[in-house]
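DM from R.C. (forwarded with permission)

"hey, sorry to bug you on a friday — could you get me a structure for this? deadline for the figure draft is monday and I only need the backbone to look sensible"
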Amino acid sequence: MDKGIYCLVLKNPACTVQIGALGNLAFAAGWHCYIGSALGPGGLLRLERHMRLAEHRDKRSKWHIDYLLTDPRFRLEYAVYAQTQERLECRLAAALARGGPGVERFGCSDCNCPSHLLYRSKDPKDEIVVAFSGLGLSSRIKTIITPKAKGNV
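My reply, with the result:
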C-alpha cells in the first residue's frame, strides 16, 4: 500500500472528552483537524482503520485521535491525504498551526510539535489543500459518511 500523510477533519459540538493520559479536554464547537502519518506498515490503509472506528465506535482507544473517533459527539467528515515517503506530518501541522489554535500535546507524543490537532470555527478544507500544496504534495479528498454526531453540530 502507498505511504503518505493525512489530515482527518471532524465536526463537533462544544464538549469535554477524556483523552487517555491527557485527561479531560474541552473542545470548542466547530471543526478539528488531526494530522497523522501513514508511513508505517499498511501505509494509507490507516485511513480505513480511522473510518471503521468512527463508524462502529465500539473499539478500545489506543491513540489520542481514537478517543474522538469513538465519541458520538464527533463526526468524521472527510480526510485529505497524499502519497509521500517523507516524514512531512510535522511540517503540515506547523503550516496549519499558523491559521489557528491547536489542542496542546494532542497527537504529538512521538515528536516535538505543540499539537497535531487544530481547531477551526468553519470548514478548513481549502486551507488544508493549500497546506498540502505548499509542501509540494498533490492531495486527495475522501468524503466519509459516519453516524451523525450527537449534539447540535
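R.C.: lifesaver. The helical segments are 46-56, 64-69, 89-97, 125-134.
me: no worries. DSSP finds four helices and seven strands in the chain.
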